[in-house]
Amino acid sequence: MPRSSALLYVLVLALAHVARAKLSATELVEAFTGRCVAYNFMHGTPYDCDALAGLLQTAVTVNSTNPYDPFVQAIVAYGPPATPGTALLWSGCGPASDTDDVVHRLSTSLPRSYTTLEDSFLGYGLNGLDWCEASDPHCTNSSMYSSPFWLVASDAFAGGVRTAVNVLLYGGVRNTSIFGSRELPTLPRNLTAFNLMVITNVTDGCGIGSYATLETYVRTNFPEAKFTCENNPAPVRYLLCAAGRDLALCAPPAGDSTGVSTPSAIGIAIGCLVLGVAIGAVAVYIGCMRRTKDSAITPLRTPIPR
Questions:
Q1: Best label site of 73, 112, 144, 238, fewest CB within 10 Å?
Q2: Environment class of residue 286 by beta-carbon count within 10 Å: exposed (0-12), middle (13-18) or buried (19+)?
Q3: Residue 115 contacts residue 86 (beta carbons within 8 Å)
Q4: Separation of CA 41 from chain center
C-alpha cells in the first residue's frame, strides 16, 4: 500500500469514532494510534505508536493509582512538548470570548510562535475524544476533559516549558482552574520570560485584581523572568473581530493614537484571511503544475485535517 494511502487509512480510522459519545477502550486506542501515525507523518517525529498505544490501553483498562503516569512519561521522554519559547498556557470562562476557540485560532495562525497542550503531541492524540475510565466503567462521573489524563498532561506540559512561557487569560486568575492550580506552580523556576496576554474590558486587566496578584507571584517565584502584560493584544483582538465575538474590543485600545476605527480593524483581519487564501490557491496551483509535469500518475497528497 502506498505511503499516502496508508496514512489516509489510519487517519480515517482515527476520526471514525470521534462522533460517538463515549469510546470503548479499543476504539480509543485505535483513534490514538491513527493520530500518532498521522502526527509522525506531518511533523517527522519518531514516536513509537504501538508502544504508546499499549501504555494507553493499560491506563484505560486497569484500575490503578495514577494510571496515566507511564503513558505521559513515555511521551515526555522524547523531549519537551513544545519548542522553547512557544508554550502557550491559557484559561478563561464566559461566552463572550470563547477562550478555547480564540487561543487555538491564535496558535494555528502563528504555529511558530505559539504551541498549546492540545497542539503538542502530548495533547493532540486524545484531544476531543471522550471515554470512560477504568475506575468508572459506567461513566457515572466521567465527561470529556474530566479524565485524570488531562491533569497529568497539563503538569507535564507546564513542567516541560523552556526559556519563556506565554499565557492567555480571560476572566481573571482562578485558583481552581487548571492553570492556577496545576500549571502555574509546575512551571520551571528558571524561566527567562513570562508573557501575559489578557482579554479584558474596562473593569479588569494588567495590574488590576487577580492579574496584579499573578504579577506579584511571578516576580517572586520566577526572579529571572522578565514579566510583560498586554491587554487585548492586536492578534487576539483581530481574531475576536473576525469571528464576530466581543466586537467592543475591535476599537483601538485607550490611548492608541493610530486612529484605526472598528471597521478598519475588521477589514485588516478579513484582508489577511483573503490574502492567505489567495496565496494558498497559488501554491496549490503551482504544486499541481509541478506534480503534473513530474509524474502524471502520482496523486497529490490529501491535506490532513487537524
A1: 112
A2: exposed
A3: yes
A4: 19
- With beta carbons less than 8 A apart as the criterion, state whether 104 and 116 touch: yes
Beta strands at 193-199 and 164-170: parallel, antiparallel or unpaired: parallel
SS3 content of the chain, % helix, strand, coil (to 5): 50, 10, 40
CA distances (Å), origin 121, targets 24, 88, 114, 277: 22, 14, 14, 27
Which pLDDT score, from 0 to 100, does residue 204 have? 85
- 110 versus 257: which is more confidently predicted? 110
3-state DSSP call for residue 91?
strand
Q: How confident is the model at residue 32 (pLDDT cuts 50, 70, 90)?
A: very high
Compute the Cα dihedral for 148, 151, 153, 156 and give only its sign.
negative
Distance CA 94, CA 96 (A): 6
Q: Is 241 exposed, middle or buried (0-12, 13-18, 19+ CB in 10 A)?
A: buried
**The three cell numbers locating residue 73:** 512519561
166 pLDDT exceeds 80?
A: yes
DSSP label at 207? T
Residue 278 scores a pLDDT above 70: no
DSSP 109-138: HSTTT-B-TTTSHHHHTTTT--B--TT-TT
Residue 115 β-bridge partners: 87
Element (H, E) at 41: helix 25-43
Per the CB < 8 A criterion, the answer to whether 156 and 82 are in contact is no
Rg from Cα positions in the chain:
21
